[in-house]
Amino acid sequence: MDARVQWNIRGFRSNFEELKLLLNRSQSAVVALQECRLGEGQVPPRGYTLLLPQGGSSGGEAALLIRNGTRFSEIDLKTGLHAAAATISLEKTLTVCSLYLPPNSQVSKLSLAGLFEQLPKPFFVLGDFNAHSPGWGGLPPGWAGEDAQRVHS
Question: Which UniProt keywords are listed (predicted)?
Fold first, then answer.
């Protein structure tokens, strides 16, 4: 069983069948999704709970799917970023955050650091950062990749 999976789904509804296949194959406890483009009343795949950013109107640009039966506690993030997070209990308790940074958006190191400070440790941040950096094979380097690499260090 894969405990964590990340996917920029580019449309929850348009890729729903592929998502169900992924969930059936991986049996993942938690899936971080980006660019969900959720509509009103979107129903999660059977066997999963859908977590969206609380109090935001992001259209579900970041979301978490948590397998039913997995103990979790949703985290109410205070951020302007597209992010959803929960603390989950597997063999150990850990925090998983799904984050989407749109292309060409100017996200400050302070915003990212503020998000990270809200996440109980240990934590994973999974997402589409649209951040190119030679540090992970992305060329050409851009401001987002350089900043992400500095915040990560």
Answer: Nucleotidyltransferase, RNA-directed DNA polymerase, Transferase
